[in-house]
Amino acid sequence: NTDATAKKIVESFRQLRVPAKHIRLDPVPIEPDFYSDRIPIVESDLSKQMVQDLKDAKLIDDNGLLEIDPRKSDWRPVLQKHADKINDSMIADASPISEVMNVAWGMHEMARDGVKDALDFLMKDISTTKK
Description:
Helix content: 40-55%
Shape: elongated
Structural class: mainly alpha
Distance between the termini: 38 Å
Largest sheet: none
Strand content: under 5%
Number of helices: 6
Oligomer: single chain
């Protein structure tokens, strides 16, 4: 489990008196403008169509949350026609759509979510280190 591993790593840093913080990024609901808010080339109307297709395919629940890890589910055929419109390869860990699907699941290496917490942590550490 990635969350448990991250917690162990943070604890090992703290035991060494190295400042560390674990910022957990929870799953993100796939709402109508999810794709247009996160992928600059995707317009709002296209995003809404993509979300509707995922709903129709029962890949997201009533709250907009993915039902299955996108690394293991068959969402690509559902969104292929939309990906073609923006020249997205849909290759895992390489395409914008693939990456935001991982963000929605809450299993990703990086995202815009949590950046403020990370910067606040770094700035706090810098201010205490300078003293």
